[in-house]
Amino acid sequence: MKDNGRILEVRDLYKDFSGLEVLAGVSFQVAQGERHAVIGPNGAGKTTLFNVITGKYKPSGGSILFQGRDITGRPPHQLCRMKISRSFQITNAFQELTVFENVRSGVRCLHGLRYHFFRRVDRDVAVNRRTEELLHLVGLGSVADAPVSTLSYGQQRALEIALTLSTDPELILLDEPTAGMTREETAEAIQLIDRVTRGKTLIIIEHDMDVVFSLADRISVLHYGRILASDRPHVIRDDQRVKDAYLGEG
Ligand SMILES: Nc1ncnc2c1ncn2[C@@H]1O[C@H](COP(=O)(O)OP(=O)(O)OP(=O)(O)O)[C@@H](O)[C@H]1O
């Protein structure tokens, strides 16, 4: 299944919006089990890249291979079944439902597909057990019965991560998971992401360089819709082109 240890290969990807070329030939690879950060200035095309990889938008050119299979242009629900999952903004969660109910709906979706031959009661037990496991994993066990609307900001972002994990993905894409967090919340989020992505492959878009350099095994720098450099963190840190374009001398 694996293509020389690669789980994802993006080849010469293009995307334009009514003539505005946002991705202009993006190529990079992600190895199985790697934590890969995508960094770059505002408007560089990072979220668009995620949207194309996860099927929200079709690219105008190029291809995407997941575990050696061409997934270019496939819709999100197919990619979800193939074990690719991206973070949802918390606005996608049902605010009046409890934390438990939200995560259970994601888990149920997966179990409905996988355990359709089980008796309903057995399936419900399995779904509830998995939901509890996920809530404990992300540290939300104590607020399982609270409505989402009552959670703190940090807890809402942890719920986002639980929802992303609810489909049991192999490849996890997180878009700025620490945006808007305090220093303490960010430090906790780094530990959480580290813990929950063990044994999986992670691609993360992040502006906070503490998060990037704490988590990433490799970093790709997106600049004007192209990959300026893709390498290990210490190489990226010393790359003069990257310093000029994004990191600065600091
Ligand atoms: N659906 C869309 N329609 C038109 N233009 C879009 C659309 N989505 C993104 N863009 C444009 O594409 C460019 C890149 O946006 P994108 O959100 O991918 O950048 P980014 O690197 O994620 O930026 P940031 O770091 O600020 O989140 C921007 O100029 C944006 O306005």
Automatic annotation (TrEMBL):
<dbReference type="GO" id="GO:0016887">
    <property type="term" value="F:ATP hydrolysis activity"/>
</dbReference>
<keyword id="KW-0813">Transport</keyword>
<dbReference type="InterPro" id="IPR017871">
    <property type="entry name" value="ABC_transporter-like_CS"/>
</dbReference>
<dbReference type="InterPro" id="IPR003439">
    <property type="entry name" value="ABC_transporter-like_ATP-bd"/>
</dbReference>
<dbReference type="GO" id="GO:0005886">
    <property type="term" value="C:plasma membrane"/>
</dbReference>
<keyword id="KW-0547">Nucleotide-binding</keyword>
<dbReference type="InterPro" id="IPR003593">
    <property type="entry name" value="AAA+_ATPase"/>
</dbReference>
<dbReference type="InterPro" id="IPR051120">
    <property type="entry name" value="ABC_AA/LPS_Transport"/>
</dbReference>
<dbReference type="GO" id="GO:0005524">
    <property type="term" value="F:ATP binding"/>
</dbReference>
<keyword id="KW-0067">ATP-binding</keyword>
<dbReference type="Pfam" id="PF00005">
    <property type="entry name" value="ABC_tran"/>
</dbReference>
<dbReference type="InterPro" id="IPR027417">
    <property type="entry name" value="P-loop_NTPase"/>
</dbReference>
<protein>
    <submittedName>
        <fullName>Amino acid/amide ABC transporter ATP-binding protein 1, HAAT family (TC 3.A.1.4.-)</fullName>
    </submittedName>
</protein>
<feature type="domain" description="ABC transporter">
    <location>
        <begin position="8"/>
        <end position="249"/>
    </location>
</feature>
